Amino acid sequence: MRCLNCHEIILHQVTWSNLFSPPSDAIICESCFTQLERISMPQCSICARPMARGKICKDCERWERDESWRGILEKNVAVFNYNEAMKNIVARWKYRGDYILIEMFKYEIQEVFQLHFSQQDLLLVPIPLSQERMSERGFNQALAIAALIKAPVREVLTRIHGEKQSKKSRKERVNTENPFQLLEQVSKPVLLVDDLYTTGTTLRHAAKLLKEGGAPAVYSFTLVRSG
Amino acid sequence: MNKKFSCFQELFSYDYSWIPSTLEKATPPPDPLHDHLSAFMTGKLLLRNEIPLDDESFQQMESSDLLATIPAIEKHPWGYKCRRCGNRKGHLFASLPDGAVYCRNCIMMGRISEKEHLYAYRLDVQWPKHIGACQWNGVLTTAQQHASNQILSAIDKGSLRLLVWAVCGAGKTEMLFPGLNLAFAQGKRVCLATPRADVVQELLPRFRSAFPHVEIQALHGASNDKSGSAQFIIATTHQLLRFGRAFDVMVIDEIDAFPFHKDKSLPYAADRAARKTAALIYLTATPRPKHEREIARKRLPVVFVPRRFHGHPLPVPQFITAFDFRKTLKHRELSPKILHWLRKRVKADRQLLIFVPTIEDAVIVTEILADSIPSITSVHASDPERSQKIQFFRNKSYEALVTTTILERGVTFPSVDVLVFDSGHQVFDQAALIQIAGRAGRSPDDPDGEVIFFHQGKTEAMVKAVETIRKMNKLGRRV
Ligand SMILES: [Zn+2]
Ligand SMILES: [Zn+2]
Ligand SMILES: [Zn+2]
Fold first, then answer.
1. How many Å lie between the centroid of ligand 1 and the Cα of residue A33?
2. Average pLDDT of chain B to the nearest whole number
3. Which residues touch B320 (CB under 8 Å, ≥6 apart)?
4. Do domains B142-305 and B318-478 have the same CATH topology?
5. B265 and B86 in contact (C-beta within 8 Å)?
6. Alpha carbon distance A78, A93 (integer Å)
7. How far apart, in Å, do the first and last CA atoms of chain A sit?
């Protein structure tokens, strides 16, 4: 078996220290596995940013103070920190287009989903890509993540503006037109899925539409929490 | 041909029959920039987004016979093959959601899948004929001259390979000049490929001053201009993945070196970058067994250059046992055998170049020696200050440099003693040890630097390395 990430042959050396860590049908090697950093507690109870103290981070406080955005997003759950190794892998996966790399996170994605959301009957909604980006890349990275989770997926959002966030200020970005459009009403609580949580603006724009379109609650799930 | 057999052939040999031939007579594109575009596109295998044409002009060119559209991935009964990088390993292919198979091996150059194409330009470009292009006025030694004549004749005849087996410090760059002078007079296109970007950067100014009127471009990972449209290309072997049937003369420097012999896509690309009628010139100081076998069977013509350009023999490594090397290192000390040699060394004003097996060893050895040698530092492959440290050592700002095998080849320092600690370690194979020994005595002013292998038991690699060096010195005396 070759490591999906570095292509080296995986040696199965079972020792006491790794007996319980990587899954036995490991598709990545020990050395690649140890480079991945799971988000640990304590973290912001809304956006999963790692924090030294406190319950809610400054950014989320700001969102919650704003009447038009309060409670739009119940909470975000992220799997990994955006460390150097992760940046490198995400770049190869998303920008170079090595689609299969997402498989290396399958086990952790499923585990974290189970931990936080297994009790709820959720509809998974991936953040959509623009037509242009989609034809360039050949896959939607958010859908690739959602597809690994054992829950119903429906692509009810579409993108009306491109992805480029340009150099606008936070205020401009937040108050600009919503880049998404809702294709059909929803009645179940929704779990939005995306690759990165950076400022939370994209996810909140999507969440807002979903709530207006009937979703009783909107959560989000991202592969990494950056920033 | 039997179908089964041809399937085997596809599996075991390089097949570039999918590259279309160039057109003898064709109407060039009506664009006024067509000369520039032709020079850029000829001899390349490009992706659509690498071709600087708008959709309309592109389609126009595609519908003429000027541009051949080539599927990028081949499907065979035994699996897939990537035409760009030659990858055939099952685990280096994967599929996209629409089922299209893509190559993971060369994905850093832009992903290609079954649904995508490589584009080959079919118009033959006439390169300028430079008469007397070589402005170098130096004189070749007898040994250099002998090899140089063979290189020149290979370039003149074409359609053959020649291995130039030249000792470290033989002056191989100069040996190429007369042959290249002829190549440019005949309007040929030339490529010199080398595994390392620092060598590309070092060679570019030397060739530019020797051939001031020939357009020369350097291509490597960090070079600004990657167009590769010049008559003479000096490139890292990786850059050849974009070329196909481009060069009339293909010089491959250090053909034995990592990563060339480890990464199968590089020999594939180097072979493909040469035209069918090309002269392939391989340069090496330490041929791999594969080439030695070919030489023995007289399948690969060879020319030896057993003598350094300054005429002095190669320094022969001395063995000193230091059985306690690992034990003492654990206690942050150096073996008394090493310390004794350092105290008694013959020419204490030479700089010290110390090779160790691992990065950890380099750090510890540097720390220990820093007590007695204040200006000492260490380098390794991923050291961000690597090139700066090498430059400082060259300027003699450092007295000693502790290194892993990354400095085994390519770099030259005029006056060093070379030490190898734990020379029996597996990282030091025969070729590595010969290259390492070749760092000593490079300058005519100080041609006999010492080379010491401190070991915990002789290995075959050590013994063979010394045998080879002695053999070359013996041959060198006869020249
Ligand atoms: Zn790995
Ligand atoms: Zn937060
Ligand atoms: Zn490939």
1. 7
2. 90
3. B337, B338, B341, B452, B453, B454, B455
4. yes
5. yes
6. 18
7. 35
With contact defined as beta carbons under 8 Å apart, do A36 and A4 qualify? no
B318-478: CATH architecture: 3-Layer(aba) Sandwich (3.40)
And the tokens for B235? 């490139």
* Position B378 confidence tier, pLDDT thresholds 50, 70, 90: very high
Cα separation, B456 vs B337, in Å, equals 11
- pLDDT tens by residue, B137-157: 999 999 999 999 999 999 999
pLDDT tens digits for range B428-446: 999 999 999 999 999 999 9
CB spacing of A139 vs B97 below 8 angstroms? yes
Q: Which two tokens stand for residue A43?
A: 């973290």
Instruction: Identify the residue whose tokens are 């390395």.
Output: B465
A43 CA distance to ligand 2 middle (Å): 8
The phi, psi pair for B10, rounded to 5°, reads -60, -35
pLDDT value at position A173? 64
Contact between residue B435 and residue B168 where contact means Cβ atoms under 8 Å apart: yes
pLDDT of residue B118: 95
Alpha-carbon gap, residue A91 to A81, rounded angstroms: 15
Interface of B with A (CB under 8 A): 91-92, 94-98, 100, 102, 104, 107-108, 110-111, 113
* Contacts B91 to A, Cβ<8 Å: 2, 7
Pairing assessment for the beta strands B73-76 and B79-82 based on DSSP bridges: antiparallel
Q: Return the residue of B nearest to A103 by Cα.
A: B94
* Three-class SS state of B209: helix
ipTM, two decimals: 0.90
With b for 16 or more beta-carbon neighbours within 10 A and e for fewer, the B230-251 pattern comes to: bbbbbbbbbbbbbbbbbbbbbb
Q: Degrees (nearest 5) of the Cα angle B228, B229, B235?
A: 30
Q: Where are the domains of chain A?
A: 1-35, 37-225
Average pLDDT on B207-217 reads: 97
Which residue in A221, A222, A199 sits closest to A69, CA to CA? A199
Among the partner-chain residues B92, B107, B113, the one whose CB lies closest to the CB of A96 is B107
Q: A28-32, A153-157, A207-211: which range is least confident on average?
A: A28-32
Fold classification of B142-305 is: Rossmann fold (3.40.50)
Structure tokens at B14: 């390089």
CA distance A77 to B465: 59
Nearest by CB to residue B96, choosing from A7, A92, A138, is A138
Average pLDDT of span A16-35: 72
The residue behind tokens 């079954």 is B114
CB contact under 8 A, B98 and A138: yes
Q: Inspect the interface and report whether the beta carbons of A96 and B113 lie closer than 8 Å.
A: no
More confident residue, B262 or A122: A122
Averaged confidence pLDDT in chain A: 89
Q: What confidence score (pLDDT) does residue B35 get?
A: 79
Indicate the pTM of the whole model. Answer: 0.82
Asked if pLDDT for residue B213 goes beyond 90, the answer is yes
Per-residue pLDDT tens over the stretch A48-60: 888 887 789 999 9
pLDDT value of residue B9: 46
Task: Tell me which chain B residues have a C-beta less than 8 angstroms from the C-beta of A100.
Answer: 94-95, 104
Q: Is A100 on the interface with B (CB under 8 A)?
A: yes
Q: What is the mean pLDDT of residues B112-133?
A: 93
Q: Which residues of A touch B92 (CB under 8 A)?
A: 7
